[in-house]
Amino acid sequence: MTLDSLIALRPRFQAEKEQEIKAAKKKLGSLPASSPKRYELNKEIQQLYRGYICDSLIYYIYENIRLSRQLKDHEKTLESEMSLAVYLAKSGMYLEALVLMDSIKRADVNDELLDLYYRAYNLIYRQKAYISKDKVLAERVFAPLAKVYQDSLFAVVDSGSTIYYDVHIQKYMDEKKFTEALKLSENRLAMLTPGDREYAAVWYNIGDVKNMMGDMTGFFEAMMNSAIEDMKHCIKDHASLHRIARTLYDWDEVSRAASYIQICMEDVYFYNANLRSLQIAKTLPVVTQAYEKKNQSYIMSLRTKVVVIFLLLFFCVGILIVVVVQKNKLSRMHRKLQESNDSLNVLSHKLADANTHLNEVNNELVENNYIKENYVAHFIRLSSEYIGKNQKFRLEVNKALRKGKVEDALRMTLYAGTDDEELEEFYANFDEAFLSIFPHFIEEYNKLMAEENRVVLTDKQKERKMLTSELRVFALIRLGFNDSATIARMLRYSINTIYNIRSKVKNKAIVSKDSFESLIMKIGMLSME
Known about the structure:
Helix content: over 70%
Order of helices and strands: HHHHHHHHHHHHHHHHHHHHHHHHH
Radius of gyration: 37 Å
Number of helices: 25
Largest sheet: none
Distance between the termini: 38 Å
């Protein structure tokens, strides 16, 4: 599937993610508060929140710190504290991460946790070197410290592990050995399959390397693959999509860039990590301004074209008038010269009359279509008002009867029908009239909905040309009645009911909520023209 098609499925992926988290939490809730099993289950939940909600991930790391201290398991406490430092650094809280790591004594860390110890320090100093505004401090302090911990990490990581590949790829990148970095990344990718947790990260590394090598096509393809995997796993921390948006902006594909950066901004607020928020916030104004500038340029161009078209139209009308005048002159000359050919003149007049008649008929058809649509709206309004007046009339009769004025009531009442009958008759007349003008309304309406949300009429409704309540509301909108209060009065619903119907239908549509009703207004326009 393409990236755009997966973006459209974001709500589904998020719902699936929430179900996974809910199931894990339910399992966690079934264990005693001090159960050692909660530690590993907390780690599973951390992985579910990884790249999804940062503060929730950190919360469950804190839960493991609390639990391991309660169980007096020093190794697990150290593991959780160092994991916390890693994620604090990734979210931009470098000082907190560094203070936490400095509180851990190297002598207390066993061999199994050394890779995590060195990795945390390496990440902290590498990130500080990257974001520091003081280039001297970054180059002389932070970068060398990151290199020291990177070298220490080499000595303890297992060959073939994820950390092994990450560290070596980063080392090659630092040394500008891009060919070696690319080869190692591709070897790592070959060991994985789509769907693996690290698949997106490896594609991102490949894209990063190809960018440094100047292969922008390869870079873009790799970032797209990474973003696709992120979408499938409901990752909200969009590194690759952010890079794609910046690249599209550089390529002057401003509309797509604006769309992607907007998604990044929405998801990064959901993810709630300061570092990524700051990175994307820097890009958002640039892309947005370019998008607005492009739109303004397009609007100005469109206005210019409209002016030119109108000028050409006036010019053509002027030429047409001259042509008509000259034609009349030529016709008179022709009649004088061809007086002997009366039959030809008669035929010419008949053809002219026929052409005029066709033009008149055509104009009448256009006008009739316009009148027909307005007539339906007028008819509906009158019918609704009639029902309101009738209801008021019956209330007056009832009032007279209550006061004992029977004779007055007898004189006033001539109609024995009920509001329900009148309303049903009104609905039936409205449905029949509307469908006669817009026979394909239901079919076009359903095209705007997902297949499972489409309106399916019963045989009775099809036979009697009946609309559902939902369709009636949007039929009135098609006729130009956009005010919910007006629609409520016409259909005898409450305003809240109308609001709920409009909101519910928009939520089920496959198009955006903002454009749904404008698309409803376009139903039948082609046939009307």
